[in-house]
Specification:
Blueprint (H helix, E strand, L loop, with lengths): L3 H12 L3 H13 L1 H14 L1 H9 L2 H6 L1 H24 L12 H16 L2 H10 L11 H29 L1 H5 L2 H23 L4
Helix pairs in contact: 1-9, 2-3, 2-7, 2-9, 3-7, 3-9, 4-8, 4-9, 6-11
Length: 204
């Protein structure tokens, strides 16, 4: 049974800005609306493995194995810092690109997938989050968790696309100001680095 409490809680969780939102917004600003949609699909696809491992109970491995958790965590830290370095390095040279081809959009989506896959906290989050809304009287708790997960992913995709399109809507104004463009690039790079450092100190 889908409750109002689940829908409201899920919406709040999805709306809270994180690495996926930042990536989608920055892609909408500098890559165009098609790229922002590709980023939204990528970030949404990136949470699927976490949901599946939560449903199957494999997230207990991340919770109990310090080594596995640390390996995944530092892979995610490294990737976020790489994105921050790439964006900072391109400051002043990154242009508001025309709509990318299929290969470019695929690369955008893959980056979005990696951003969320390499965050072990997501698996533990879904392990704690989804069971809260599974009815004790459910004939098939697994089926209900699967349905809740599908709804959460759909909400994530819609909200992220909204973020990306909103960013695209203001990109022309930003493009007229090289100084503002540089400031935004450096700000996004700094936020990616900060999120990476925050993940680095995260505990299980």
């Amino acid at each position: 049974m889908i409750t109002t409490e689940f829908l409201f809680t899920a919406l709040v969780v999805v709306l809270i800005p994180g690495t996926g939102v930042l990536y989608t917004v920055s892609t909408g600003l500098f890559g165009g609306w098609r790229a922002s949609i590709a980023a939204a699909f990528g970030c949404t696809a990136g949470i699927l493995p976490h949901i599946l491992t939560s449903i199957l109970g494999l997230s207990a491995l991340l919770h109990t194995s310090a080594l596995v958790f640390q390996v995944v965590k530092y892979a995610g830290v490294g990737y976020l810092l790489y994105l921050a370095w790439s964006m900072w390095r391109e400051t002043g040279s990154l242009q508001f690109a025309a709509q990318g081809g299929l290969k470019c959009l695929r690369q955008v989506a893959v980056r979005g997938i990696l951003i969320n896959i390499l965050n072990p906290k997501l698996t533990i989050f879904f392990l704690a989050f989804l069971p809260l809304f599974v009815s004790p009287s459910a004939a098939s708790p697994l089926a209900q968790m699967t349905l809740l997960s599908a709804i959460f992913m759909a909400m994530t995709l819609v909200v992220f696309i909204g973020y990306g399109l909103a960013a695209h809507a203001v990109r022309r104004r930003i493009a007229r100001s090289p100084l503002l463009t540089t400031w935004l690039q450096r700000s996004c790079a700094a936020i990616f680095a900060a999120l990476g450092l925050k993940l680095a100190v995260a505990e299980q």
